[in-house]
Each structure stands twice: as C-alpha cells, then as structure tokens.
Amino acid sequence: MIMIRKFSVLAVALVFSLTSFASADVLMPGYAQYDVKTETVLGDSYAVEPRASDFADCIFDVSGIDSNDGLFAAINERFLVDVAACIGLPSGTPVVMNGIGWNVTIFADSPSWRSEMAVYFDDSALSGTSAFALTPGFGVDSPGTATYNSGDATGPALKLLSVGLPDLYLSDGLLYIEFFETFVDYPNDWDGIWTAGFLRIQAYPEPATLGLLAIGGLLLRRRK
Questions:
Q1: 53 or 80, which is more confident?
Q2: How far apart are CA 167 and CA 157, in angstroms?
Q3: d(CA 153, CA 57)
Q4: What is the pTM of this model?
Q5: Can you tell me the distance from the alpha carbon of 106 to that of 137, in angstroms, rounded to the nearest whole number?
Q6: Is the pLDDT of residue 13 over 80?
Q7: To the nearest 10°, the Cα dihedral for 176, 24, 20, 184?
Q8: Residue 120's beta-bridge partner residues?
C-alpha cells in the first residue's frame, strides 16, 4: 500500500489494470487454435549499434475481437504474435517484452461489465512464469461502450517493471495473446467486443543477442 500511494491517480488505475498471472501450472489446452493477426510497426528501425530503446514498437490491432468465456476456453480468440519479426529481427530471435500500452474501445453487453473484459499475455509455451493480464475497464462494473488508454490516445507503453510486473521473456520471439472474460455471463457466446483500437507491445532482443547485434554493427561500420 505504501508503494501505491506514491503513484499518481492514473498510475494507481494502471497498476490495477495489469495483473500478474505467475503460475507454474498454466498448460496449453490441447484444442487451442491460433489465429494469425498481422501486426504493424510504429517507429524507426534500430541504429547501427542497437540499444534496447532503438527498436520499434509492435502495434496489435484489436478491432472486432470478441470477448467470450473464461481464460483458456475453447471459444476464445487467441493469437501468436511474432514479436521478433515485428521489431525487425529474424523470426525465432529471443526477445524480452518490457512494455505494454493500449488505446482501446470496448463494448460489454448487459448484464456483462466492462471490468470483466481482459487480455492475457504469456510466452508461446504458456509457462505462466511472467504472464500477466490487462483489464482496461478495471473498476467499471457496468455494461456499455467506452474508450480506455494507458495515458493518452497514442497508447504510450507502460514499462512492466514500473508497475511491479517482471519483463516477459519470449525464448522464440512469440507472444501468446488471449482475450477472455473474468466472469462469464453468456457461456459459449460473446459477452463483449473489442470494437476498435490497439495494443502497443515494446520488446528488445535478450541481452546476449543485443550484444551480438551491437558487435555486428561495429564490424559493419569498421568495414566501411
């Protein structure tokens, strides 16, 4: 509680919007099917001598995604996002996700609440080690439509460590995203819809890979 009191009102809301799902018992359901979602890049490509801050943000469009049942339900919409490729690295490159931002418009169909619509983030193996969930409408226990963001319309990324969450290590560069309901009002059907907006994913190569990229950049520059 002492730490929370040090945050601004906005920061307190964001802290409670992001929830840790750390667990060693999270398993991939055998019936899981993944949709392929095209992500876009926002920002400049990394410099000759790359740093973690030089990598572009990965933008994930949430428009038209249904919010259905509880976490890992067969009906839920789930995705594997190639974050490594999205930030300009070869697919399969290990990366560390260290920030998440959002600017989303959600609709909760009565009697469902906006506070029940959530999105879960984990590695592709669903290890649960550093998994977390985002609930943009946290505390809004009513149906309806509203827009929520992580600070302003640009959806600035919030560093995970700044709200007490560990960075999420993606050994294969793939991020698992699942949209779900924390309370199910309409089993096997949608309770709400993510009508518009995006998630902003920030990531960088793991330190060892980042070092190799920096060395490669130096060699390239020397050859010139």
A1: 80
A2: 13
A3: 15
A4: 0.79
A5: 8
A6: no
A7: 70
A8: 133, 178
Given a contact cutoff of 8 angstroms between Cβ atoms, the answer to whether 100 and 2 are in contact is no
Tokens linked to 96: 């560390």
Pick from 112, 77, 107: nearest CA to 184: 112
What does each C-alpha distance from 212 to 93, 202, 206, 207 come to in angstroms? 12, 20, 10, 9
CA 202 to CA 99: how far, in whole Å? 5
Rounded-to-integer distance, Cα 102 and Cα 130, Å:
19
Give the count of beta carbons closer than 10 Å to the beta carbon of residue 156: 16
Q: What is the pLDDT of residues 112-154, one digit of tens each?
A: 999 999 999 999 999 999 999 999 999 999 999 999 999 999 9
Q: Residue 132: name the closest of 155, 105, 107, 164 by CA.
A: 164
pLDDT in tens, 157-178: 999 999 899 999 999 999 999 9
Are residues 95 and 206 in contact, defined by beta-carbon separation less than 8 angstroms? yes
How is residue 8 written in tokens? 């601004």
Q: Please report, for the chain, the start and end positions of each structural domain, with discontinuous segments joined by +.
A: 2-223
